[in-house]
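Take a look at the protein record below with the fold in mind.
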Amino acid sequence: MVESEYNIKEMQQFLKMTGGLYDIVRLIEPKECREITIEDGRLQFQDGCYNVWSSEQRCKNCSSYRACMSGIRREKEEFYADKVFHILSNPVHLQIEDGTVLDCVIEFITSHTASEDEKQRVNHRSSEQYESATLIDPLTGLLNWDGFHQRARRLLKDHPDEPYLIVASDIAQFNLINSLFGRERANDILLEIARIFEPYQSDDTAVGRLQADQFALCMPKSRFDEAVFSKHIYDVNLLLDDSAFRLQFTIGIYEIKDRQLPVSVMFDRAVMALVTHREDHSVTITWFDDSMLEELLHQQEVTSGFERTLKSGEYQIFLQSQVDADGQVLGAEALARWVRPDGSIVPPLRFIPILEKAGLIAKLDRYVWELAAQQLSAWKTTPFSGFHISVNISALDFYYIDVYEAFVGLVEKYDIDRRKLKLEITETAIMSDTEKQILRIRDLREYGFTVEIDDFGSGYSSLAMLKDIEADILKIDMAFLRETEHELRSRQVLKSIVEMADKLNMDTITEGVEKPEQVRMLRDMGCNMFQGFYFAKPMPINEFEEYARARI
């Protein structure tokens, strides 16, 4: 099998290396039926990769298209001009000049003159071998994905001096319309959108419904009127007037700068623009800019390179001290940090939300737990042997991991005191499938772990939760320490929480402590432990040990 991801230099070397092993080796962009060559380290997109078969557009049984769309290698035989061609299509990801990753295919082709038996065997297919893929969406009558790509490519070729736009649109959570109102109503809405876009069909414009609720236009910039499109959005949003669901129709626009880019990449950038402000319902039209691409490339770097950076040790734990009322260090919380090889540190907000969205956060959390257990083991014969390390457990961890088995395994693997590995569980994690989480927490405590309820006060069911869940420590959310116009009320609530925890036989730790007056106030209220920049910021393990040694 071919490796899945290449940059341009690596691809050029691979094509050169394999070129002598087959009759034809070529790089294909199947969505637009273009052959890709590499000249002077840059990609060159040729017109029509299927001129080998004398076809002007993609054949409906194209194995390379199916390989690209499925990500699975495909094989096929073609009979053409008295020859049999055996085609092996391998899907690959190619990073192009600006960092965008392009889905394409490497074709390895061998051929030989067909025998009479082979002619007879494959001749019955010849009438349909090169039948073109359908180009029209059967519901709306607009162009489908293939038709839109083909026409947009032709427009850009035929109007080389005309500035063009790709306009993408969709409806947020359109799948819910099918569930709430039925397929017929959903199709009616799609037909209404198609009728709005139909007038834009002309000799210099492509209009298509690419999939589900996604529509696209390739049109001259001179014909785009933002006020008119705002009216279109308003009209679409009125198509469904129901208290259970409101349409949210949005538009993203990509102004075409590089006409050699695949149309699929252009469309993706228009889509990237429309989803950027989806949470802000006041923004309905968004233009793509380079910052969006930079953010996309950063997300790709985080997710595609996650396994590599994890194995290379770029993800580390930093320790933030947890102290008593006198400032004496009792232990620390382990926090994940991404330290690049050059020593620069990627802030948590620049990778943790991305890993959460990609479903990778549980793997990072488990890695952090292991590093914490290793550190506790390393401290057993040092002045830090009495310290604990707290680690975080998220709602997704409970979903992906057998948490009890994981922590018991770490205690046994590193022969550490289970009381020293403290478990911080967020309110959100507990409120998801509460009955099951109560049992899991009970099992963890019975084994000997100290369980903390993290970010207490940030959720909506804190008090109701406390009556059912037995935990050892209440970690009070830093929001209670922020300045507010209702400061007196905030202090009264905070004092009540500390007193309530004491009555429930729970210790308290307050995070986000930054000022000496906060320490005095919390100490007077009876808070047991403190964490925050007033005492120390999160720091690498060696710096934490130097800091702690002076405070033992």
Summary: The first strand starts at residue 5 and ends at 7. The first helix runs from residue 8 to 18. Residues 145-298 form a domain with the Alpha-Beta Plaits fold (CATH 3.30.70.270).
